[in-house]
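Sample intake sheet
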Amino acid sequence: MQERPTGPVLIRAAQYVRMSTEHQQYSTENQAKVIQEYAAKHGMEIVREYADSGKSGLSLAGRGSLQTLLQDVETGATDFEAILVYDVSRWGRFQDTDESAYYEYLCKRAHIHLHYCAEQFENDGSLPSTVMKSMKRAMAGEYKLLASNCRESHDSKGDKQWRVGRENCGGALRGRHKHPQEAQSIEWHLRRSRSHIKG
């Protein structure tokens, strides 16, 4: 009997994608492309997809696919060992960062590892990774709050005030999507943290 050729065993993974109405950068197609590239690079195969389209990341409410994903994880109805997400903000822009951490912990408790495919850090539990992830969660929540405040300014004060508000908010809004500015913000927070430790 001829033996079948054996290759490396791929890690079975599920992907989660979410798009609200923010930016084309975050289209589900773009997310899926980055996730697929990450999977191929890390020896994974995507066996299931969960997608929330047109859904805000502020809360779990209304995000049926994420709710299903977490339910599958908690009940053991999974056929995968990892969850692939584009970045921290796609997991959620929760105003309470502990909420985002809790949902990730549910996966960790079930021995399913969460990967943020487009982030500049590995979600490996190390101290640098934990610090970066915590800051990204806070930045994701703050961005959503800032965007909401800008829209409220437009709705309540008219176009002229909106233009002024957009100039004030624009730097922060754009900075969330450009790595150099984002890196500067992170470096500032790290320097501040170090100064507090030294003090």
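Comment: The mean pLDDT is 79. The chain has two domains: 11-116, 127-198.
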